[in-house]
Amino acid sequence: MIRVLALWALCLMALFPDVVRAHALEPGFLELEPYGPSQWRVTWRKPQANGAPMKIETVLPANCSPRRGPAPVFDGRAFLTAWVATCEGGLAAGEIRIEGLENTQTDVLVRYATTSEAAPQATRLTAWAPAFTIPPEPGPLGIAAGYFALGVDHILKGVDHLLFVLMLLLLIRDWRPLLAAVTSFTVAHSLSLAAASFGWIVVPAPPVEAIVALSIAFLAAELLHPAEDQPRLTQRYPWTVAFIFGLLHGLGFARALLEIGLPEGDVPLALLAFNLGVEAGQVLFIALTLAIGAAVARLYPLVMQRLAAPGSPGLRVVAYGVGTLAAYWVAERVAGFIA
């Protein structure tokens, strides 16, 4: 089982070409804000690629003019442009397309409101779905479904969060303390996500991201520590360690949610749906990981018994690999907010 989990860690990192950034690539951001009768203020922020604007372009619905914006200007992190578009008949039923997105490995967050009275909505466009048709103003069910999907999408693309969970699975082998740790992690990040989303806690994003990376480095170091010498801290106090780091990971989830925005009048519903989406994605990842491990252990029991011993070469390779990656993230993120 442990060997399979170790291989799964390596596969997780290999599946993301830009894993060193923790979230594939810097995403694009498009916002359409009602400005006047049949008018919308359009803000389009696209990532840089090798020092130049990524070759993707926003194309607004056919009834909008202009459908494309002026040349973007570099703002220090990405290329930004803005314009006012007139869309006779409104945005509903119109198609927004990100031209060229299908040729990239990034995604674009779209935030829009169909009228000045309507609550802002959000959706995410990807290389597999570079366009969408704006629906009429959704009811509560539509809002919940949208934010639930965004929560699932965020956790499954958050390689740093998944690596933290995977390190817990590698460290804690007894299902009871593992259940306590995962439950504690869930409760903690749910609490800090809600507190940050309501503005009760305000913490700058760069330090939070650095500490999230540090939490992964800590678990990697725990995995390298010989368990026979002295029980590891994570094994002695699994729910405490998971709870403390869960609070910090929740602040990271809140940053993503605040970037998307919460609909006025439906904040509790959107927050609950997003959090449930995060939990669903986390449970899916854990279930898939354990299922793969159990299946391989059943097929090759003798091999698994020999490879599952603490301190095995496979575990040490994973621990060093994940620890090195996490240390790089820490250095990169600390440099980002002290520079």
| Percent of residues in β-strands | 15-25%
Radius of gyration over all CA atoms, rounded: 22 Å
- The N- to C-terminal Cα distance equals 43 Å
What is the percent of helical residues? 40-55%
* Tally of separate domains: 2
Residue stretches low in confidence (pLDDT < 50, at least 5 long) are 1-8, 12-24
Given the C-alpha coordinates, what overall shape results? elongated
Q: Give me the secondary-structure category.
A: alpha+beta
How would a crystallographer describe the biggest sheet?
8 strands, mixed
Q: Provide mean pLDDT, rounded.
A: 82
Descriptive report:
With 339 residues, this protein is of the alpha+beta class. It has two domains: 2-22 and 158-338, no CATH class; 28-138, no CATH class. Helix content is 53%, strand content 17%. The chain has helices spanning 2-14, 140-157, 159-171, 175-197, 205-224, 233-236, 238-260, 267-299, 301-307, 313-338, and strands at 28-36, 39-49, 52-53, 57-59, 64-65, 73-74, 78-87, 95-99, 108-112, 121-125, 131-133. The strands form two sheets. Strands 1, 2, 3, 5, 6, 7, 9 and 10 form an eight-stranded mixed beta sheet that branches. A three-stranded antiparallel beta sheet has the order 4-8-11, with no helix packed on it. Strand 1 and strand 2 form a beta hairpin. Helix 1 (2-14) packs across helix 8. The longest helix is centred in the last third of the chain and has 33 residues, at 267-299.
